Amino acid sequence: MTTYDDRASLSDLTATAERVRASVESVIEGKPEVVRLSLTVLLAEGHLLIEDVPGVGKTMLAKTLARSIDCSVRRIQFTPDLLPSDITGVSIFDQQRRDFEFKPGAIFAQIVIGDEINRASPKTQSALLESMEERQVTIDGQSYELPSPFMVVATQNPVEMEGTYPLPEAQRDRFMARVSMGYPTPEAELQMLDVHGSLSPLDDLQPVAHAHDIVKLIDAVRGVHVADAVRRYAVQLVGATRGHPDLRLGASPRATLHLVRAAKASAALSGRDYALPDDVQALAVAVLAHRLLPTAQAQLARRTAEQVVLEILRHTPVPQAAGPLPGKAPHVRQPPGPRRP
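RE: above sequence
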């Protein structure tokens, strides 16, 4: 059995994560929260959905994160004529061997970038379900393991609906978190013009971490302690979505698992070997909102899933003491206040 001392230390984790963060931020200016969430999902063994309008850097973020880590990368451009076998692979009959030979598809990479994922048909989208959950692909009754680490970073445009197929709830539930890039600040946009106006920002980007480093860091994140009070807090937050009057579909038990895993990764990135309610609160909107379906009445009232999650955070009691180790002072923080629309 692997003990915590056998894993990468927290100092190693924070140092490596800082290098990756700095590398990504050298291309994606003015979005530190987005970059941190991407690293959190990577270390929590999750998948990331980047959803925003065109031209704000969705694909650039995914490619920069992949380029910053020395691992295999595949990019899939989702289109209506894309076939499931283009993603998973296909068995081809070899005339010389007189047998079928498996030709791996684009999913056999450590970082898989799915660009405009909602442009593919539901049949093609479903080809990702097994790989995202079980980290394997089954073809003709034979299962093939995917490499480690494995992360799907998908992008989609929520505004343009013509010629697209909305992701089904089962697929959205497999993404640990959803993030929106948003428009850059004027200062960040000016800096982008100065630095990237004449060349591609990815041309000179070199990897700052290896795949085996990420595997060790993921193993270190697994050792982060989550107190019983913090686990109960996460369960209460997710459970509150299932009976909320503004929601016709609440979050699944998988959402609870993803929320706790993300909280552990966030704690490790902060240099702690234990998770706090703060970690759960900070990630609740990103982890839960994309899984929720508002009722028709809530949509008419322009109530979003993000607003519902913030309301649940305000009304759910925060654990009074979350420190798992003796001698650590309890950490108490009030839920976030209402956000201006």
